[in-house]
Amino acid sequence: MPPPRGLDEAQLLDTQKAFDSVAADYDGPRGNNELIQRMRGTMWSTIARTMPAGSRLLDLGCGTGLDAVEFARHGYEVVASDWSPEMVERTRARAEAAALESKVSAVHLGVQQLHLLGGRFDGVYSNFGPLNCAPDLRAVADECARLVRPGGSLVFSVMGRICPWEAGHYAVRRRFGRAGVRLARGAQSVGMNGHTIWTYYYMPREFYTAFQEHFTLGGYRALSLFLPPPYMVERYRRRPAWYERLGRIDDRFGGLPLLRDMGDHFLIVMHRR
User: Binning pLDDT at 50, 70 and 90, where does residue 6 land?
Assistant: First the structure.
């Protein structure tokens, strides 16, 4: 089944306003969240294995620039894009504070606007689900094919459809509608700071369908399958040693068939034909 498409201008602006509203303190709860940092570390190591230092990378949905500046420190050149102008300003400030302005170029550009971007890239990455907010995933795939050189790679962290922790968490509270929200087709409204983020959820192979014309599938794995989703970090903090054991199970088995189709996110790697 091809991925859904749609989202009107008002819905896109809803999402933009939601992220603008949290940009100033976005790094606080997320930057100190052990579960987020664990997922981020897996993303970083995957990119380091997939794209050699010196590569020119495009960051889709850069947020406050944590990933972009990290890669710049390790010799990458990064064009960091985001639909939220406040997030773009945070990225610029972070790059300036790290004296990496020559390595990080931050641009106000949504994933639905890639046709406005020129140049050629060795790879594209996107962390923590910006592509879940793309109104037309196949258009994103076509633009990635235009922007990425043959042999270049995509590394995306995407929110998945099947998150056992989340389904169980809400089911035991008898919030059955919330427990099944990821299974619904079409854009779902997700609240954040009094605003709405319009979000699609995907199975990994469903997501890949949009890209398969131009990209081969390098592989994918679950993120936070045995570990709880990052918004349950207080559980982790009450018993960190026990949850770290679950994290090691994630690391070992999260790439196996069937298991890799579940989790809070999945990490997918594709290569330009």
Answer: low
